[in-house]
Amino acid sequence: MTAHVGVVVTDEYLPGAEDPDTPVLLPAMRAAGLKATPVVWHAHTPGDGDYDLLVLRSPWDYPWREAEFRAWLTEAHRHVPVLNTPALVDWNLDKVYLRDLEAHGVSTVPTRWATTEEQLRAALDTHGDDWVVLKPTVSAGALHTGLLRASSEEATDLGRRILAEGRMIMVQPEVPELSAGAEKALYFIDGQHTHTISKGAILARGGGLAGGEYSEDPQPVTATAAEAAFAESVMAAIDAASGAEPPLYARIDLVTSAEWGIVLLEAELFEPALNLHRVPEAATALAAAIVQRVGARTGG
User: Fold this and answer.
1) CATH 3.30.470.20 fits 97-108+177-268, yes or no
2) Do you know which InterPro entries this protein is assigned to (predicted)?
3) Can you give the pTM of this predicted structure?
4) How many beta carbons lie within 10 A of that of residue 257, not counting itself?
C-alpha cells in the first residue's frame, strides 16, 4: 500500500519569502513511491485525511499565529506522526535553545537576554555606541530584527516593541563577517550533511533589510572541514540537549569570525528553507529519508 505523506505548508507568505522547496520536494517524493500532498496547516482539521505522516516544511506564518499553530501541531500529532517531532519543534521554536546548546559546548555569538526594559537598557549599555543586533527569541524572516547603534533611540524603541508583544529580546554584537555576507547554512538530512548554502547579508545597518526587503541569495558553496566538523558537533549537541527523536532535516547556520572563531547563529529544526531548488539532489535524499521514516512507523 502506498504511504500517504502530507507536506505542511501555508498559503500566507511574506513578499520575497515564498516557499522554494515544496515544488521540488513533492515530485521527488512521488518518484520515491510516496503519495505526497501539500497541507495548509491552518486550513487542515487534525484527523482529516488518510495520512501516514506529516512533514513540516513551510508554515511560515506561525510567528503571528503562534498559539494557534502550537495547538494545531499538538492536535495533529494526536492523530498522525509529525516530523520533525513536536517535542523537537517545541524545544527549537524559541531561541533560548541556544543556551542549552552552549551548555553542551557549542560556541555561539555572545548574547544578552532581556525580558524587562531595565534588562534591555543594561544589555544595550554594555555595547556603548557599537552596532548590535536586536531580535525576539521567536521570529522568522527577520521579523522585528534590527542592526542598530546600541546607544540609539531606534534600538531602545525596537526593544520596547518586542517587549510589548510579550517576547524576550536577544542583544548581540554585530559580527562583521555576518554583515559582509559570510554566513553559511549547512544542511543535514537524517544526520548526513548533504549541502551548504551561502545566503548573503540580510540586515542593513541603521535598521531594515539589505535591499529594502527580506531577500536571500542562496548560492551552493563548500563548507570547510572545520565548519563541517563544527556543524556535526552541533547536531550531536542537539540530540543531547533536546532529548527528542533525531531530526529528519536540520539547518545549521554558522559564520567563521575573526573574534570568536566559528560560531553558531541558529539551528533551525522546525521549518527551514532547504533550498532544494538550488541542490535538487538533496530533494532526492530527503524523499528517501521520508520513505525510511514512514516505513519504520508503518512497518513497510
Assistant:
1) yes
2) DcsG_Biosynth_Enzyme (IPR053191)
3) 0.92
4) 16
